[in-house]
């Protein structure tokens, strides 16, 4: 009897424990289920929030594009270049035209030239061959590599981002490329003015795509303190191209095309990849004093690609003049921002360098060299008078800057002096160069270097 009672008692306890266990198990399972449902609901909510956020951002981006397209249409309709070269066939200064062409022929010049005085045409002509071996002559439609003058495009693009409050001139480089030496102490302004102390070591060029090109270049950048506070180094503008990519969210090529080339309707301006598809593209040559076509250059695609931000755009003299005049007239940047961009206090050999051009009181010079191409522009600050050379034959001992300086003096001289021979070493008046535009004081690097 006692044993049976004990057994029943133990069975009851076991049953109770089993019921209790099952109860807590059920509660636990229920708790897990509730938590799981809550987490699932949270995920759905977050997903919906993310989707809504993405939709809002996409709608905002789409609206921005529509607004930009609408603004562009208005801008394109209103933006008129000062000079329409399709209609300008006759020179307003025939004697000056004769003198310029005579000087170019005497110098065995090969290339295209545009010269203007008071926004009137002096000359728009081409001399020589685009392909000597095929006996093809240069024309006013011949296209040339822009070389270092492209740095002005890069600088203008940076200032567009400043105007959009996406950047400041004093933002530290470390915000974008902290791996670059001394980047905490280098600003956007330093890069624009080439006062950063950054240089590029020799490296093997293999990349074609922009991101890959930058990835190849970045590990080869080094810092060196500057003795005079300034030294020419093209890698400053390669870095700026990388910053444009990071800040704008677009490729450098797309940003320059959308913000400068298309709005200004530069029909004969573009990037090297488009040029390489043209069978009749202008060839470039190594020149001697006797033969401007002594040896044609062979330019690899990797060489073109490596000049991102510094020299892989092609153009014509008329397109380049349109660009500079549009820049001066406030069609690309606000005029006060342009002044800030072009102003630099430090003087080097009677000129200052800022944003891709050399400045003096009253005028500026832009010059470049790339694998036989030698573009040079010398214009008054208001863009009304000046001369642009686009050469496809280059001699390091006989650059066209000396000749363009002499001709610029002729163009900007008072009317009564226009036909008087000018001593290239003597300053005609206070508003023309004195022959001191000379960047031979530095070791050429990047696209300024001559490759044989």
Automatic annotation (TrEMBL):
Pfam family, one: Beta-lactamase
Composition bias, Low complexity: 421-434
SUPFAM superfamilies for this protein: beta-lactamase/transpeptidase-like
Region described as Disordered: 417-452
Biased composition (Polar residues): 437-446
Entry's transmembrane regions: none
Source organism, top-level taxon: Bacteria
Domain (Beta-lactamase-related) ranges: 110-365
Name under which the protein is recorded: Beta-lactamase-related domain-containing protein
Organism the protein comes from: Vagococcus fessus
Taxonomic placement: Bacteria, Bacillati, Bacillota, Bacilli, Lactobacillales
């Amino acid at each position: 009897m006692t044993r049976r009672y004990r057994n029943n008692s133990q069975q009851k306890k076991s049953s109770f424990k089993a019921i209790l266990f099952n109860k807590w198990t059920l509660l636990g399972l229920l708790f897990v289920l509730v938590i799981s449902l809550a987490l699932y609901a949270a995920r759905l909510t977050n997903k919906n929030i993310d989707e809504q956020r993405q939709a809002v951002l996409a709608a905002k981006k789409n609206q921005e594009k529509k607004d930009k397209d609408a603004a562009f249409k208005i801008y394109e309709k209103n933006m008129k270049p000062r000079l329409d070269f399709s209609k300008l066939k006759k020179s307003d200064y025939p004697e000056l035209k004769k003198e310029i062409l005579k000087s170019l022929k005497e110098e065995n010049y090969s290339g295209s030239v545009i010269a203007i005085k008071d926004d009137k045409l002096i000359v728009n002509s081409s001399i020589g061959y685009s392909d000597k071996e095929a006996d093809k002559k240069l024309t006013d439609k011949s296209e040339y590599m822009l070389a270092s003058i492209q740095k002005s495009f890069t600088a203008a693009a940076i200032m567009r981002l400043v105007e959009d409050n996406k950047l400041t001139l004093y933002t530290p480089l470390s915000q974008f490329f902290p791996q670059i030496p001394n980047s905490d102490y280098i600003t956007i302004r330093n890069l624009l003015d080439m006062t950063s102390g950054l240089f590029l070591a020799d490296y093997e060029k293999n990349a074609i795509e922009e991101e890959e090109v930058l990835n190849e270049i970045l590990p080869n950048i080094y810092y060196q303190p500057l003795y005079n506070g300034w030294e020419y180094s093209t890698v400053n503008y390669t870095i700026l191209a990388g910053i444009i990519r990071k800040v704008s969210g677009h490729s450098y090529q797309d940003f320059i095309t959308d913000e400068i080339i298309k709005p200004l309707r530069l029909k004969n301006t573009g990037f090297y990849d488009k040029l390489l598809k043209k069978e009749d593209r202008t060839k470039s040559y190594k020149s001697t004093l006797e033969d401007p076509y002594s040896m044609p250059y062979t330019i690899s695609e990797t060489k073109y690609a490596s000049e991102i931000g510094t020299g892989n755009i092609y153009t014509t003299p008329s397109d380049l003049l349109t660009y500079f005049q549009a820049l001066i007239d406030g069609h690309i940047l606000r005029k006060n921002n342009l002044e800030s961009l072009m102003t630099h206090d430090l003087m080097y050999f009677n000129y200052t360098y800022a944003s891709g051009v050399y400045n003096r009181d009253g005028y500026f010079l832009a010059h470049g060299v790339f694998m036989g191409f030698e573009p040079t522009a010398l214009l008054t600050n208001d863009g009304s008078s000046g001369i642009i050379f686009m050469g496809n034959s280059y001699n390091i001992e006989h650059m066209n800057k000396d000749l363009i300086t002499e001709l610029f003096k002729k163009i900007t001289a008072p009317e009564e002096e226009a036909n008087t021979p000018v001593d290239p070493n003597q300053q005609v008046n206070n508003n023309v160069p004195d022959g001191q535009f000379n960047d031979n004081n530095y070791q050429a690097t990047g696209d300024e270097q001559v490759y044989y």
